[in-house]
Design brief:
This protein has 321 residues and is of the alpha+beta class. The chain is built from 9 helices and 9 strands. Helix 1 packs antiparallel against helix 2 and helix 4 packs antiparallel against helix 6. The longest helix is centred in the C-terminal third of the chain and has 40 residues. The N and C termini lie far apart (93 Å).
């Protein structure tokens, strides 16, 4: 039983490129500004010292040129422009000192600050597709299941310092949870209770991801692959269940009708029954082409019914006895 994780690409948005451009532009401006200032200072010192001693002028020009080339690059690299959705995790001499951002900030790795950026964390919501191929359910049915997880970094400190790769750790936890969830459910539960299964899966993944500083907002089961022959069997089973439920409902209705008829019969005397028969005959007589022959109401010759029935059937008229 294997679980395949589909690769995803997280592309840079136009806002990210804009922020990077701003940071690059500011660093270039700082470099050129410091370069010009230090260059002017170096030339001034060289000019003054050259008037005193030529060798002092050459020495100041050499030292000043080195500082002019080195210092602008060292200072400009300390500037960071952090967008709203990112955070910088900072260390000082190897120890955690805080999470910075968003906005403009300086990270100075030189004495006496000795600061360093250990990670640049993206706090936006991300998605990832997880696929469990040919996993066995609790009733030993091989199915393939796909789910999408929505997650974001909630604690940048934990994400950067407690795990080497927080994204990979979350994905592996999601893979294991998906396999365990599919294996603990029967096929009918997996197909008929997707919302309940998704919530259960979300709770399992969120509990594991919380140790990495990650919050799993939701998990959605997108697709369940069932063998074709099993789909046919499930269809037949569903039709049989619906037919049985229809018969049960029909029998319950007939039972209720029979009970009501018994109650009505208990309330009617002979005269009420005669009136009921007349009402029924009236409703029948409203139909086009109907013919009604009434006999037997209020007593009379009992043989008349047989004679009328024989005449209505087109037989020979029986003589009177």
């Amino acid at each position: 039983m294997t679980v395949n994780v589909a690769p995803t690409r997280i592309s840079m948005s136009p806002t990210t490129r804009g922020t990077t451009d701003v940071q690059r532009t500011l660093r270039v401006l700082i470099w050129f500004g410091l370069f010009l200032v230090l260059g002017v200072i170096t030339l001034g010192v060289w000019f003054v010292l050259s008037l005193v001693q030529p060798w002092l002028g050459m020495a100041s020009l050499t030292v000043g040129g080195l500082f002019t080339l080195a210092i602008p690059g060292m200072v400009s690299r300390c500037l960071y422009v952090v967008p709203e959705y990112q955070r910088l995790v900072l260390l000082k001499m190897g120890k955690f000192i805080g999470v910075k951002g968003p906005g403009k900030l300086w990270v100075i790795p030189y004495p006496p600050y000795y600061q360093s950026v250990v990670a640049q964390i993206d706090t936006r919501v991300r998605t990832r597709v997880i696929t469990a191929a040919q996993s066995l359910t609790a009733d030993n049915v091989p199915v393939g299941c796909e789910a999408v997880i929505f997650w974001r970094v909630e604690d940048p400190q934990k994400a950067a310092l407690t795990v080497a790769n927080y994204a990979e750790a979350v994905f592996q936890a999601a893979n294991s949870a998906l396999k365990d969830t599919v294996g603990s459910l029967e096929l009918t539960e997996l197909l008929g209770e997707r919302e309940k299964t998704s919530k259960r899966l979300k709770d399992i993944i969120d509990q594991a991801a919380a140790t990495f500083g990650v919050d799993v907002s939701s998990v959605e089961i997108t697709d369940i692959h069932v063998p074709a022959d099993l789909i046919q069997e499930l269809s037949v089973l569903a039709q049989s269940r619906r037919a049985a439920q229809a018969k049960i409902a029909e029998a319950d209705a007939e039972k209720d009708i029979a009970g009501k008829l018994q109650e009505a019969a208990a309330l009617m005397d002979d005269r009420a029954l005669d009136l009921y028969r007349l009402n029924v005959l009236e409703r029948i007589g409203r139909e086009e082409g109907s013919q009604i022959v009434i006999y037997g109401l209020g007593g009379g010759d009992t043989g008349m019914g047989k004679d009328i029935a024989t005449a209505a059937a087109g037989s020979m008229v029986v003589g009177k006895k």
